[in-house]
UniProtKB/TrEMBL annotation:
It comes from the Bacteria. Residues 44-140 form the N-acetylmuramoyl-L-alanine amidase domain. This is N-acetylmuramoyl-L-alanine amidase. InterPro entries: Amidase/PGRP_sf, Amidase_domain.
Length: 194
């Protein structure tokens, strides 16, 4: 693992552009960005994600090859980039995110990382291309690559990553908040000159 700048994230994404798009096209879809939480502590890093964001907003990579297939999002890993917030240890539900809820620094860094990746990979920042793990588990993009294992599915391996980003938020609001923040940075022209 190594810490990287947003410029490095953009450079690594550009290097992976063709392999990512080839993988996604082999599945008949666009490249996807999946947003996760580790269910760990703020500075606990896991290599099943391409990028990790620590509690202070630091951005780390587990690989220099964003086209490397990671085991992060069931039946959705080819042609995708997995980004995870280091947080949510012992989170129980939308009203109890435990002692390690997503921090403002993490949410800000996540929005910037998504903006930079989307620009480098020619992606629209919308539900079809940028999803939380909760949304992907629920097949919210309509791809139906697997049985629903999202919130309220009853699946024993339910994934509800970023279903909400703050305790008490409306259910399913996490993805819209994340995409809205990323689109705000896109509107500001973040790293457009790079």
């Amino acid at each position: 693992m190594r810490q990287v700048s947003l410029q490095e994230v953009k450079q690594l994404a550009r290097q992976a552009y063709h392999p990512l798009w080839n993988g996604a096209r082999s599945l008949g879809r666009d490249v996807k960005l999946y947003c996760h939480w580790t269910a760990g502590r703020y500075f606990q890093l896991f290599d099943r994600y391409h990028l990790l964001i620590t509690g202070d907003g630091g951005v780390y990579v587990s690989t220099d090859n964003f086209a490397e297939v990671k085991a992060a999002t069931f039946m959705r890993n080819t042609g995708s980039v997995a980004i995870s917030l280091c947080c949510a240890h012992e989170a129980k539900n939308a009203n109890d995110l435990g002692n390690y809820p997503p921090t403002d620094a993490q949410m800000n860094a996540l929005a910037q990382v998504i903006c930079v990746l989307a620009d480098a990979l020619d992606l629209t920042i919308d539900l079809d291309r940028v999803m939380t793990h909760a949304e992907a588990a629920h097949n919210s993009d309509g791809l139906n690559t697997h049985e629903d294992y999202g919130p309220y599915s009853g699946d024993p391996d339910t994934r509800w990553d970023l279903f909400v980003v703050k305790e008490g938020d409306d259910e399913w609001s996490g993805g819209n908040i994340i995409r809205g923040n990323a689109n705000w940075y896109r509107g500001q022209g973040l790293l457009k000159e790079y």
